[in-house]
Write a structure and sequence with these properties.
Elements lengths: L1 H24 L8 H14 L2 E6 L3 E7 L7 E7 L26 H17 L7 E7 L8 H7 L10 E12 L3 E3 L2 E4 L3 E8 L3 E2 L9 H19 L6 E9 L6 E2 L2 E10 L2 H21 L3 E7 L5 E3 L1 H15 L4 E3 L10 H4 L4 E9 L19 H18 L1
Parallel strand pairs: 3-4, 3-5, 5-16, 6-15
Antiparallel strand pairs: 1-2, 2-4, 6-16, 7-14, 8-12, 8-13, 9-11, 10-12
Helix pairs in contact: 1-3, 1-9, 2-3, 3-9, 5-6, 7-9
Length: about 400
């Protein structure tokens, strides 16, 4: 079976690479993947795969039925949305939609899932059970397409016993894949804070309430929530990435806006931290004569890989690529809405190497120069297809 899938992956590589280049050149933002969805639907029709469209408007569910299809079921997921980034590339497949770019590799995820689907369709008489294909919108934007698709019944009719997801990883050389059993990725919440004071002339501090000074105290003081209140051995990160205070050298504004993120790997501590941060920020502002609106926008939960499902996929990857090309991954404080699947089903979310230093393909995710070694497509669809059959075994 390994050899057959490798042959099919090689055979379909040119087509899947063309699909990836088309998707990369025509990116669409979260929940606006209308043309992408139509394109994927057309490919599924060409492959003879039954599907239903319209989940969260642009999402698609395909079904590949093997022998005894009602006996068991797994799901394979690929996300489709792009990011609001201006691409810096001379590639022929550079984004045609200025200001929108596949800088997180979702074009690769969708292409690999289509490639795996085409392979599995060819082999449907050689495995038992049903493989559900989830083409998902809106991974990059709250509340997350995974959450909304689950609410619309993506994990029903049939209900998969396992859900598998694959994500590009530019830190890992092409030809390799990486796995982490158990807790893998953090929850992620957005913090939107408005600090209110009373503006005035910067030379007359006794006449105003300085929201910039209040905001700076809040930013520094909130770090003690992580350093002094977090549970032992629970990773947590608090970072502010945006400060807006529309004053000048001699003008103190009336308010300052802050935006940040809080991430952790414990749900009880997560929500306790929200309360502590809000209370501390409000008390600091009040004590300095101002006020503070502290809005926590709850994002994705933590992602935990099922031990058994992940071990099955690790062994499949070793059989397919060789043990030397399967690596262990560390915990990550990044987040993924695939985590919603991990809250309701056993999952395996793993990484596909895309780096090639010899070719200068080294840029990180969410950067304007991100790209992949296209060889990753052949590897990605093959590992996904072989892993799916092993999961059904």
């Amino acid at each position: 079976m390994v050899d057959r899938i490798k042959q099919l992956s090689s055979k379909y590589f040119k087509e899947i690479n063309e699909i990836r280049e088309h998707l990369h050149a025509n990116p669409e933002l979260s929940f606006k993947e209308h043309n992408t969805s139509k394109y994927v639907q057309q490919k599924l029709k060409e492959y003879g795969i039954d599907f239903q469209a319209g989940y969260v408007e642009t999402g698609i569910i395909g079904l590949i039925k093997g022998k005894n299809p009602a006996s068991k079921s797994i799901a394979l997921r690929g996300d489709m949305d792009a990011l609001p980034i201006i691409e810096d590339s001379s590639a022929a497949y550079c984004s045609k939609n200025k200001g929108v770019m596949h800088a997180c590799g979702h074009d690769v995820h969708t292409s690999c899932l289509l490639g795996a689907a085409k392979i599995l369709k060819q082999l449907e008489n050689e495995f038992e059970g049903t493989i559900k294909l989830i083409f998902q919108p809106g991974e990059e934007r709250l509340p997350g397409g995974a959450k909304l698709m689950i609410e619309e019944g993506v994990l029903e009719n049939p209900t998969p016993q396992k859900v598998i997801g694959q994500h590009v990883y530019p830190d890992l050389e092409v030809g390799k894949v990486g796995f982490k059993k158990g807790m893998y990725m953090a929850s992620a919440d957005e913090l939107h804070v408005t600090v209110k004071g009373k503006g005035g002339h910067a030379a007359l501090p006794h006449r105003f309430i300085d929201p910039i000074l209040i905001a700076s105290n809040i930013i520094v003081s909130l770090q003690q929530i992580v350093s002094r209140s977090a549970k032992p051995n629970v990773p947590s990160v608090l970072s502010f990435g945006k400060i807006i205070g529309e004053g000048s050298t001699n003008i103190i504004p009336d308010e300052v806006k802050l935006e940040g993120t809080f991430r952790t790997m414990d749900e009880e501590w997560r929500f306790d931290a929200h309360k502590k941060m809000k209370a501390l920020a409000e008390s600091i502002a009040l004590g300095m004569g101002g006020s503070c609106d502290f809005d926590v926008r709850v994002g994705y939960p933590y992602l935990v890989n099922d031990e058994v499902v992940t071990e099955t996929h690790i062994q499949a990857a070793k059989e397919y690529l060789g043990e030397e090309n399967v690596v262990d991954l560390d915990l990550r404080m990044t987040a993924e809405d695939f985590s919603y699947y991990s809250q309701v089903a056993p999952v395996c979310f793993y990484r596909l190497g895309t780096r090639n230093e010899a070719k200068g393909i080294t840029s990180g995710l969410h950067t304007s120069t991100f790209d992949i070694d296209s060889k990753a497509l052949e590897i990605g669809m093959g590992v996904m297809a072989y892993g799916a059959i092993k999961q059904l075994g």
